[in-house]
Amino acid sequence: MSQTKPRTPSTPHRQSQGGKDFRKRVQRSKQQTDAPAPQPATRPRAGNPSAEPGLVLKADRDKSLLRRHPWIFSGAVECIDGAPASGDTVAVRDASGKFLAWAAYNADSQITARVWSWNEKDLIDKTFFRNRIAGALKARRSLGLGRDSNGMRLVHGESDGLPGLIVDKYGGVLVMQLGSAGPEHWRDTLADILQELCSPVCIYERSDSDGRELEGLPVRSGVLRGALPDKVEVTEHGILFAVDVAAGQKTGFYLDQRDNRALTGTLATDRDVLNCFCYTGGFSLYALRGDAKSVLSIDSSQEALHLAQANVELNGLDASRAEWQCADVFEALRKLRDQNRKFDLIVLDPPKFAPTAAFAEKASRAYKDINLLGFKLLRPGGLLFTYSCSGGISDDLFQKIIAGAALDAGVDAQIVKKLHAAADHPVLLSFPEGAYLKGLVLRVA
Ligand code: SAH
Questions:
Q1: Measured between alpha carbons, how far is residue 68 from residues 92, 159, 316, 426, 439 in Å?
Q2: Any residues with Cβ below 6 Å from ligand 1, and which?
Q3: pTM of the predicted model, to two decimals?
């Protein structure tokens, strides 16, 4: 059930008052600078009490914002005007007082503010959010998305101009994930808008991602509007998947891999397939439908494997060609190597090993380990579909890790295709972090 935390009253903002009191800035103390998550000093709002709360950047710390990157880190902030509560809209100004953006403030995050709008004339209110969400829906319609699937990411956070907001659609059910203080603040408004624009049978909230903790937000999930049907199913490329919206991972399903799963299906014919980190059987079902000779699927979650097997049945696929293992992939791959098992197509789609660049080194070792073992398990001419959904691992670094793994495995491999998330997960050019999913299809000599 949903639990709501006491809400801080919203601070409606209006158009800028201009940078009136910029000379009276409160400097941050040394002690504050050394604190683990330093927060900028605040100053009481002087003058016009109805002036919007504001955030002033340090001199020379406006460059990333001028390139339209929507995050403002605490280290870039000179001071806070007024006393905004987390989630309130603040006017962001450079050191000279020039307006830069409207942003959602979060006192409890290293990312002090996330930009809603670059336009000073914008009013951040229900109409603003309605237009943004309607824009995201329109963009997807104009790209013809939804023809292959009744599951779709309707809102992809920063890349759709709505930092921290994820909305996934599974047939008539919408799942909303609020990842930061801005959308948290506008939670009810956002649900109202989604109800008005999409008329879903249910809006379910899954605000239980790891990132919430970093934002100082409580974990929360439950029905927000309507009622959750007993069965939620999604069809993609003609395959039906049961989705556990309430207890499944993320918002219940990994929509981002839709087109990559379809590609795997077309290349699986007559091959022995190994699908590591299979979750509810995504790649496995496509491989079975694509007439793979055999499909071994491994995941550490028994619940996910149960759903995967139910999905095979749901689609009337030949279960006799499918084998399921509940195991740790790192160990399972070693066992398969020791048993001298060989495959013609291997999928490695692990969870996020490196949420940020700080985890990149440790994550690199993990990626190298599984990919090295993957290369060793492939027959000559075999295909490796390998992925990273780590924001902290760049495309270049990922390719280098895979090259190192092939070298150590003693195989020559070619990249035959580079893969990304499906088009309902667009990437804003000024926000490269949006391109979290990268994949390589490799063919070993
Ligand atoms: N390929 C899937 C999504 C994979 S998500 C799809 O298309 O739907 C990552 C999966 O890895 C999750 O199901 C999680 O349970 C599993 N997992 C995480 N760590 C694991 C480990 N060490 N060994 C096996 N499975 C693991």
A1: 13, 11, 49, 16, 27
A2: 249, 254, 257, 261, 277-280, 282-283, 298-301, 304, 328-330, 349-351
A3: 0.89
